[in-house]
Amino acid sequence: MDPEPICIQDGKLYTSAGVATGIDLTLAMVEEDLGADIALRVARGLVLYSRRSAGQSHFSTALAFQASSRIPLRELPIWILEHLSEELSVERLASQAAMSG
To answer: Which of 32, 42, 49, 76 holds its CA 20 to 30 A away from the CA of 91?
Structure first.
């Protein structure tokens, strides 16, 4: 037993750390059978925020960032995702972070 990874494969046996990591495990199995492109398309179809590697630890950087008490920085990644087709210079990101505060 290894308490760190979210998913483990041992021969024909696959296990995941919990319900949400079952989705990560499923995507890893899709990638193994059908390739990374298909796994990414499935992840997009499921509207997943990100696709985690099966070997990733239980720590979620995204959740830790969202729990930050610094509200402007917590809002900025969401704003960026909503404005990907626009110019996202450092100056514009700094301005947006300042407006959120």
So the answer is: 49
